């Protein structure tokens, strides 16, 4: 199980900017997935993911089938970092919508890229810039956190590239369930772990990803959802809690 103190709002990517193209408008929810099923506790290899607390799944903060009239081809991922939604286009007039959390770097990226790297239970290491600017937050983790229950990248990560180059933009899971539907001072695009596993399984290598600009969000999204959520303050995580979880995971694997 993932320990409850693991609320890691760590920076996972650097700022990237890509010129954009517009997705289609949001048309409204058709059918909601019940939280007791998709968001229940689940086994993922030798790791048990906890259920998502229902308090974090209040509509529209859960995976939902929606009508969608955008021009993107089936299989395209569309990210709206202002409405805090990610769409997986499934066919003409239909998409799956996932709620997301967005960091500052996630809001600094727009346009299109492709998924050229996919990782299950990715590890995380703070960048030199993070260590220099916020040593009190990231210094204790300069050695990195291996993939697993303690990693702030969660259960899966999708890495976006453009023209063969890493954009430093990531779509990944999170241990911080309360952040979904909100913004933070750091990070890229985060989903509930159950959602990122679902998306990971749907999106093969080479999947096209389109990220909306603010103007596109205002023009194309349901007005009630543009700029939804609040900006959360940084969370300083106790390194003893993190590395205790890492050691516990190692012991379980050894048994």
From TrEMBL:
Biological pathway: Cell wall biogenesis; peptidoglycan biosynthesis
One Gene Ontology molecular-function label: peptidoglycan L,D-transpeptidase activity
InterPro entries for this protein: LD-transpeptidase (IPR050979), LD_TPept_cat_dom (IPR005490), Transpep_catalytic_dom (IPR038063)
Keywords: Cell shape, Cell wall biogenesis/degradation, Glycosyltransferase, Hydrolase, Peptidoglycan synthesis, Transferase
GO biological process: cell wall organization; peptidoglycan-protein cross-linking; regulation of cell shape
CDD domains cross-referenced by the UniProt entry: YkuD_like (cd16913)
Keyword Glycosyltransferase: yes
Domain L,D-TPase catalytic positions: 75-212
Record has Protein biosynthesis as a keyword: no
Domain of life: Bacteria
Active site as annotated: 172, 188
Family: Belongs to the YkuD family.
Protein name: L,D-transpeptidase
Record organism: Pseudooceanicola nanhaiensis
